[in-house]
Specification:
This protein is an alpha/beta fold. The protein has 6 helices and 5 strands; from the N terminus they run H-H-E-E-H-E-H-E-E-H-H. Strands 1, 2, 3, 4 and 5 form a 5-stranded mixed beta sheet that branches.
Length: 150
């Protein structure tokens, strides 16, 4: 999903410096350096994936100064969740974190529900991003990029 979003942002790149980072590799400095964010992650057991959750745990409080002011206040973000049948809990978790950081959503969170049966065999299969999900993520990435160019 993040590929479609990144493609759209690259197409609008004129004045953007884009970075694509895995959650485990992203630092507080990366967050402070960036003007906007596109968070993409899978839902796992009705929650944010472990890697993404660890990223938020590792960075969250370091964004605030001594007066409890977020250094990210007002910066735009987009959110895309890959889910089986729901995804709303993962979305709510990240939206709440972004609210705490005082980020500004550029649009509604996109949840791609794969519609696969929720059984062990189906859940463990490799996932594919269908064209309609690709386009939605491309639109979301474009919206974050366009917001930054305003």
């Amino acid at each position: 999903m993040e590929n479609g979003a990144l493609l759209a942002a690259k197409e609008m790149k004129s004045h953007l410096n884009l970075q694509r980072l895995r959650a485990e590799d992203t630092t507080v400095e990366d967050l402070l350096y960036s003007d906007g964010y596109l968070f993409c992650c899978p839902e796992n057991l009705a929650s944010v994936s472990g890697e993404m959750l660890e990223f938020f745990h590792r960075t969250y409080y370091h964004i605030f100064d001594d007066d409890e002011t977020s250094a990210l206040t007002g910066r735009p973000y987009g959110l895309a969740i890959a889910a089986g049948s729901d995804g709303s809990n993962a979305a709510k978790q990240i939206e709440r974190i972004c609210t705490g950081w005082r980020l500004r959503p550029v649009g509604d969170t996109y949840i791609n529900r794969n519609g696969q049966p929720q059984d062990k065999t189906s859940i463990l299969l490799p996932k594919i991003c269908h064209p309609e999900a690709w386009e939605k993520c491309k639109d979301l990435g474009g919206l974050v990029a366009a917001t930054l160019l305003l």
